[in-house]
Amino acid sequence: MAKRGTARAARTQLADVPQQLAALASMSVPELAEKYQELYGEPTRSRNRDYLKKRLAFRIQELAEGGLSARAVTRISELGDKLPERWRMRQVEVTKPAAPPPPAAADARAPAAGGRDARLPPPGTVLTRAFKGAQHRVTVREGGIEYEGQLHRSLSSVAKLISGTAWNGFTFFGLKAGGSKAVTS
Questions:
Q1: What is the reported pTM?
Q2: Which of 62, 90, 98, 127 is the most buried (most CB within 10 A)?
């Protein structure tokens, strides 16, 4: 008799899903945030109505019909490093309790031991960039970026000085993946 009661409760819950999803459309952002807290057990940082509706719709369906199958979770684990990093981070959060990342997986943007940005090439490297018909050369130094005899804090500040508008310095000087700018030592 207990199985029948469980099956009936599951059917009732599944039948209620369309009504719950329809109710999301008329909720205000504070109501959506409250529902998020109820379903996820933690407050949301987002105040984007469409995002909250999508996340809540997914969670309502997940609770009613179940999450990923064991086979799907196993397959995701097998794919490992082939997944985009943001997906891997979600998978880690789902399968393991929060733990500090291992030292080898430190953020590439973290300052190096000497306080310098680890993404920069070694000191002494000369970066060149042609902009509006002029060739601009900067030298990476231990304490910053040298341009026209002056030391600057970042590549972005030099890029802004050259172009007159805000640029990501790594993009401007071609240091991002796929960049085609010249880098010489």
A1: 0.39
A2: 127
